[in-house]
Each structure stands twice: as C-alpha cells, then as structure tokens.
Amino acid sequence: VQLQASGGGLVQAGGSLRLSCAASGRAISSYTVAWFRQAPGKEREFVFVSPKVWNTDIQYYADSVKGRFTISRDNTKNTVYLQMNSLKPEDTAVYFCAAGQVFCSNYVCASAQHRYDYWGRGTLVTVSS
C-alpha cells in the first residue's frame, strides 16, 4: 500500500487543520493507520492511532494532543484523517501517516513505530504564535 499525506500548511495558534492520508494499491480498511510527527531538531514521535482490534473503536493518542486531535477514516475514499483543533506552536512538525497489520490492545504496542510497515511522505504543519 502506498500512502500520501496532505493538508498541512501555515495556521495561527488556536486554528484548525485536517490532514488526510490517502492510500492506494490496497484497501486502507485492511490496515491500522497511525499518525506520527517530527518537529525540527527532534525525533519522530507518535501522535494518534485507532488500531484494528476486535472491531472496537479504541483510540490511543499522545497526551500532548488529548482533547484537541481526533482520527477518523472514510473507507469509501480509502483515506484516514487527522483533525487537529486548538493548534499550538509546539504542534509545528512534519506529520506522517503510517500503516501496518497492527493489532494492539495497549498504548505501548499501538504507538511503536517499528510495527508500521508503510509510510507516506510527510506534510508540514506550521503553527504561528
């Protein structure tokens, strides 16, 4: 499966953006798709995932985005979205989507980057103060 992230841009603090992760080659419904980000000068970090486990709606997310970011998917469009609200300057980063056959029932498992086999090119989000 090939992934393409888009939707990044420049936004003022407090604003919103919706990132899209469009898949091609295979149905995205077959995969767990997660979002990661890499801020300038920092390592890539986990942001959000809704893992495929027992058909539940379990979601895992970084504490820093709690209550502000949500994840959703539209299987008819083969796309997963990351809705980002109340953006802060510290959210500035390149955002990546990643997919894999990840079946996890805990945060540590679901957030582990090595579990995701397919990565898209990132999309830059810049939040100005």
Mean pLDDT: 93
Shape descriptor reads globular
Task: Give the termini separation.
Answer: 37 Å
Given helix and strand content, the structural type is mainly beta
Q: Main sheet, how many strands, which sense, barrel?
A: 7 strands, mixed
The ordered string of helix (H) and strand (E) elements is: EEEEEEEEEHEE
Low-confidence stretches: none
- Number of strand elements: 11
Explain what you see:
- Helices cover 3% and strands 46% of the residues.
- It is mainly beta.
- The relative contact order is 0.32.
Supply the key terms:
mainly beta, single chain, four-stranded antiparallel sheet, seven-stranded mixed sheet, 129 residues, 46% strand
Structure at a glance:
With 129 residues, the chain is mostly beta strands.
Task: Set out the fold topology.
Elements: E1 2-6, E2 9-12, E3 17-24, E4 32-38, E5 45-49, E6 60-61, E7 69-74, E8 79-84, E9 93-100, H1 107-110, E10 118-119, E11 123-128
Parallel strand pairs: 2-11
Antiparallel strand pairs: 1-3, 3-8, 4-5, 4-9, 5-6, 7-8, 9-10, 9-11
